[in-house]
């Protein structure tokens, strides 16, 4: 399962509209992965769902200590100090049009996994001081970018105790438990939560029921079906 992370922020707008929240564009991919033997650049598209032009900005942040209690973000203001380049960082998306956004790997993968999040968001342009100004919630998207280590080592411990499912990642690359199901019969299944676990971290989720759960486990190379 690919999850598209969306976020909202409040901005000023001209005039008054009954529907304050809007998402006037979408992105074609929410997760990008770079590997040592893979391509050095990957593209996504930003697709307009509006008749009007949108001014789009992309902010790149490196995730420090991903998945840990002290996880934080370091906004990248100088690409020379980053392993990832995103271009363009500012663009105009024509109404009904499409725009390519390119992600470029600037440095070779090393022994450590690197995680970035790229916030793609609309910005407000052309507000007249004499116009009636109100508030509007603008919706943007966040792309997860994973740079896998040059030599991935996949190792983890997973167990289910009743409705509690716990995963500890003892390797050097993140693992994703997706497409989880708990089935009483072939036509009676409940979806289990998606779990992504970063190196050195433990994640715990509550399942719909205390019965056996099946997951597709993605490690960056292959997906393996597992039951617990």
What does this molecule look like?
The chain has no helices and 20 strands. It has strands spanning 5-14, 21-22, 25-27, 31-34, 41-48, 54-64, 72-75, 84-87, 90-93, 98-105, 114-123, 133-147, 156-161, 164-169, 175-185, 188-191, 195-197, 202-206, 214-218, 223-227. A hairpin with a 2-residue loop joins strand 15 and strand 16. With 228 residues, it is mainly beta. The model is unreliable at 10-19 (pLDDT under 50). It folds into 2 domains: 5-147, Immunoglobulins (Immunoglobulin-like, Sandwich), CATH 2.60.40; 156-227, Immunoglobulin-like (Sandwich). The protein starts with a strand and ends with a strand. The chain is globular and about 55 Å long. Helices cover 0% and strands 56% of the residues. The strands form 4 sheets. Strands 1, 2, 4, 6, 7, 9, 11 and 12 form an 8-stranded mixed β-sheet that branches. Strands 15, 16, 17, 19 and 20 form a 5-stranded antiparallel β-sheet that branches.
Topology diagram in text:
Elements: E1 5-14, E2 21-22, E3 25-27, E4 31-34, E5 41-48, E6 54-64, E7 72-75, E8 84-87, E9 90-93, E10 98-105, E11 114-123, E12 133-147, E13 156-161, E14 164-169, E15 175-185, E16 188-191, E17 195-197, E18 202-206, E19 214-218, E20 223-227
Parallel strand pairs: 2-12, 4-12
Antiparallel strand pairs: 1-12, 3-5, 5-10, 6-7, 6-9, 6-11, 8-10, 11-12, 13-14, 14-18, 15-16, 15-17, 15-19, 19-20
List the keywords.
228 residues; globular; Immunoglobulin-like; five-stranded antiparallel β-sheet; mainly beta
């Amino acid at each position: 399962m690919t999850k598209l992370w969306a976020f909202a922020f409040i901005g000023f707008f001209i005039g008054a509209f009954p529907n304050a929240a809007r998402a006037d564009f979408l992105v074609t991919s929410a997760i990008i992965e770079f590997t040592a033997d893979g391509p050095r650049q990957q593209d996504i598209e930003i697709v307009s769902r509006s008749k009007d032009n949108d001014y789009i900005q992309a902010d790149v942040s490196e995730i420090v200590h991903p998945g840990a209690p002290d996880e934080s973000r370091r906004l990248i203001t100088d690409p020379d100090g980053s392993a990832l380049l995103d271009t363009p960082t500012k663009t105009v998306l024509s109404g009904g049009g499409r725009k390519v956004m390119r992600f470029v790997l600037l440095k070779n993968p090393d022994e450590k996994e690197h995680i970035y999040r790229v916030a793609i968001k609309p910005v407000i342009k052309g507000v007249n001081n004499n116009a009636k100004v109100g508030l509007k919630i603008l919706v943007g998207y966040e792309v997860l970018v994973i740079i896998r280590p040059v030599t991935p080592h996949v190792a983890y411990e997973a167990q289910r105790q009743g409705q509690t499912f716990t995963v500890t990642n003892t390797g050097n690359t993140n693992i994703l438990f997706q497409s989880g199901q708990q089935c009483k019969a072939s036509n009676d299944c409940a979806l289990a939560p998606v779990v992504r676990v970063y190196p050195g971290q433990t994640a715990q989720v509550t399942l719909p029921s205390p019965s056996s759960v099946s997951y597709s486990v993605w490690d960056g190379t292959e997906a393996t079906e597992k039951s617990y």
